[in-house]
Amino acid sequence: MESQPGQHMTIRLDVAPNPNGHDPKTHEQRIAQAAEILRAGGLVAFPTETVYGLGADATNAAAVEGIFTAKGRPHSDPLIVHISGVDNLPQVARDIPAMAYMLAQHFWPGPLTLVLPRAANIPPVVAAGGDTVGVRSPSHPIAQALLRAAGVPVAAPSANRFMGVSQTTAAHVLADLDGRIDAVLDGGSTSVGVESTVLDLTTSPPCILRPGGLTLEALQAVIPHVIAPSVSLDATDASAGQALRAPGQLNRHYAPATPLVVFDAEGARGAATVLRAAREAVGEGKRVGALATNDEAPALEAVGAQVARLGPSDDLAQVAQRLYAALRSLDDQPLNVIYAHTFGQVGMGLALWDRLRRAAGGVLQAADDKEAAQ
Ligand code: TXA
Ligand code: MG
Hints:
The protein has about 375 residues and is an alpha/beta fold. Helices cover about 30% and strands about 15% of the residues. The protein binds threonylcarbamoyladenylate (TXA) and magnesium ion. Magnesium ion binds near residues 157, 158 and 166.
């Protein structure tokens, strides 16, 4: 089944718990149908606990090509291969170090991708032509059921057009990719909300290439010598030496179409800076959006900003879960600018910091100093 963008309908297979559903097909039949499409070389979007993935049979180079076509993604950006569990690891990787098994035991299934030497039956197109492969076992029950039914490893990037915001609902996947993919399994909103943590085990010590849903602190508890992500604040992608080690880690990524300005300060100082900037921009006649926690929202609305709520300030897991849908809801409105602030770099704050920075084109703005923010 060749995926030809724009030439066929995308089947929406509802697998979310729905007591009033009138489609007679059972949950298992829908999973089986999606698995059959994958085995035939088609493209199926499916929920994982992080974001929706756009899957193809990872052992079928032609099917994997379809992912790049549907997303408009350059071949220099490698894909993550999804497996149901550690037993399948030797199908996709070779020379697997003991540390991989130890980490899998602690964190799989879950939001941790391990970069390992690539096995021969995973074609080079999956890995941007390199000798390594990123692999993870997602914990979402629908992803697990699909992987078991398909019986093949599944290459799946986030299910969005290249550079755009990752999708956390099936409706958002369709808004981006309807007609370009064969099917989407609708399992409702994803729970983690930001992509997996990518850990390179081919270097010693292991090095985090992308912070994500599994925190640095959780990894450090198991491998204390892990190297934290190195961040180049230089906005030019080519300048980063890290570009070679972490292909696909573009400084501009996860980005809305509306200009996004992110101030690098958490808590009251970040909130005060966003409020000051929003008030000024509204005063200049601009239509202003803001990403804000629940407690920050009323003051922003009072100055005339459109606010997308991220949840309580002290619940960064919820902020992460809501981030992409919130960004998307503002981007869908006719706004001139969106303001946001960071959430520190501890725990889930680090992945939020990384995604907000990339969504803003790789550049963070200094927040107002304390006195001015009063
Ligand atoms: O949570 C996730 O990781 C989601 C869900 C669907 O699993 N997937 C995802 O895939 O975010 P994607 O393609 O949007 O991002 C994968 C990133 C690549 O851009 C690249 O930076 C890194 O993972 N990556 C994948 N394979 C790699 C490899 N062999 N070496 C270095 N980095 C790799
Ligand atoms: Mg992506």
